[in-house]
Amino acid sequence: MQTFLDANRKRKVLAVDDEIINLEIISEILANSYEVVFAYNGKEAMDLLSDPEADYSLVLLDLMMPVMDGFEVIRLMRADVRLRKFPIIVMTSDKAAEVRSLRMGAADFITKPYDMPEVVLARCQAIIELSEDRSIIRSTERDPLTGLYSKDYFFVYIRRFLPQLTGDMDALVLDFDRFNIVNELLGREEGNRILKQTAELINTIILQSRGIACRTDGDIFYVYCERREDYESCIKEIQDTLNRESPSHSLRLRAGLYQPATGDRVPEAWFDRAKTACDRLRDRYNHCVGYYSRELYERFIYEEKLIADIDEAIAQHQLLVYYQPKYDIRGDKPVLTSAEALVRWDHTELGFISPGDFIPLFESNGLIRKIDRFVWRESAAQIRRIKDIYHVNLPVSVNVSRINFFDPELEDVLLSVIRDYDLQPRELILEITESAYANDEAHIDEVIADLRSKGFRIGMDDFGTGYSSLNMLTEMPIDILKLDMKFIRNMLVDEKSRKLIELVLDIARFLNVPVVAEGVEEEPQYLMLKEMGLDIIQGYYFSAPLPADEFERLIEKSIDSDTINQGII
Fold this sequence. Notes:
single chain, 569 residues, alpha/beta, Rossmann fold, Alpha-Beta Plaits, TIM Barrel, 8-stranded mixed beta barrel, 5-stranded parallel β-sheet, 20 helices
C-alpha cells in the first residue's frame, strides 16, 4: 500500500539558551537539517513544551539561565509522561554539571564553545535517530498477525508527519461485538483468521491507496483515512464478506467516526472520541456506524461528572430513596403489603437527575455496587423506623445488580445490614432482573440459593423481557415474579400481552409464587388484573414513588383505614 506520509519532513529542535550568540551558532549548525525553535530561559522552554501539540525531536538545553535553570527543566520534563519522550542534550562547559544532568535523565552533552560544528550536528542526529528507533522498538512497527501497524507506531507515524498532510482525514474505530465467543467456541486459530481477513478488507475497502491502520486490543482496529461520504456501505461490505465466508459466526462489526476539525491535532484524542462513538452502538443493532458529535461530547462530559461526584453524593445524602407501595388485591379491598425502594439523585449543581441517566452508566462501570449498598442500608433503616414508630412489619424490596453476584462479600454485606438494624432477612426482599441470568446462570443460581438458605427472599424483576425459557423458570430459586411493565401497558389493546399475563399466572400458581404487576396506571388495568387473579399491584394507579416522610404518612392512613396487611410479601 502506498503511503501518504513524507519521511523527509524536517524534525523540530528546541534550543534553550539565554545567550543569543549561542542560539545563532546552533541555528547555523542545524538549520539545513532541522527546524530550530528558540527559548531564552527554562520557563519559556516549558511553556513551549507544555503545548499539547508540541512535537520536538530534540531539546538542546543550557544549564545556567535566569528565571528557570536547565536542571529544573530536566526535572520537570522527566516528571511528565508526555515530555519525558523528548530527548535532551545539555549544552555546557562544566564537567560536574555534565555528570549531574546525565544522572537526571539527559541523553548526551555538547561542550561549549562549539568549535566543531560537524560534531554537534552528528551528535544531534545520533540522539534523534536513537530516540526514534527506541520509540519504534518499544512498539514493534507491525502487528505480526495482521501486518497492520501496531498501535504505538501508528500514533508515532501520524504525529510525526501531521504537518505534511493535506485534505480532510477521518479517525475511524472498528470493533466486533462479543468476538471472544469465536475464540471460545471455534478456537483462537479461527479467531486469528477472521482478524487477518478483516485487516485485508480494511486495506482494500476503506484505505485503498490513502491512509494507515493498526490493530489494537485484540479485535479493535484504528483507521486513519481520507474522508468519504458513506462509511455505512464500507462497514456493511466488510460485514457481508465476513459473514459470507464464515456464515456460522454471525459476527457484528460496528464503527465509530470522528472527523478532526482545523487545529485539532492530537491523534490519541481523535481515536478516543471515535471509540466513544463506537461503544455507543453496542446495543443499537439498526446502525453500524456511530458519529461523534457535540451532543455526544457533552453527554460524555456529563457522565464523567456523575462518575466523579458519586462518592460525594453518597456521603452528603444527595442520593434519596423513594418508596413505591405495593398493594395486595386478592381480597375485597386493596391493602398495603410492601414497597419497592427506588433511588433518586438530587445533585447540588445539576438538580434532580433521572435514574435513567445514572443507573445504566453505573451498571456499565461497576459503580452500581456503591449505590446498591447505599440503598440497602437506607431501606433497612426505614424498615426499622416503621417497626419502631408504627409497630408494623412492612417489607421493602431492593435491587441487587448483576455485578453484586460476583462479589464474594455479598452475603456478608447483606447479613451485616440485617444485623445492624435488627431485622429478619425476609424483610429485605432482593430483586434481580431477568436479564441478569443471561450469562453464568449456574453461578448466580448458587449465590441465590445461599442467600435463600439464610432467609432472604428473591424476586425476579422485569420478567417476560425475553430471556427465560419455561424450563429454566422451573429451576430458578426464586420466591416472587414481577411482570415487566410493557405487558401491563399493552394488555388493554393487545391480546398477546393478556395471554402472556395469564400464562405467567398459571406458571406462578404451579410454582406457588406470587406475581407482582408493576406499571399499573389505570383502573381498567387494575380491574382486569384482579379478574385474572393477580396477587400484587405496584404503580401510579395506587401511588407514585414517595419520599420517606410521605411514605410514612401513607402508612398512618393505611393503619387508620385498616388497609394494611403486614409482611405477606
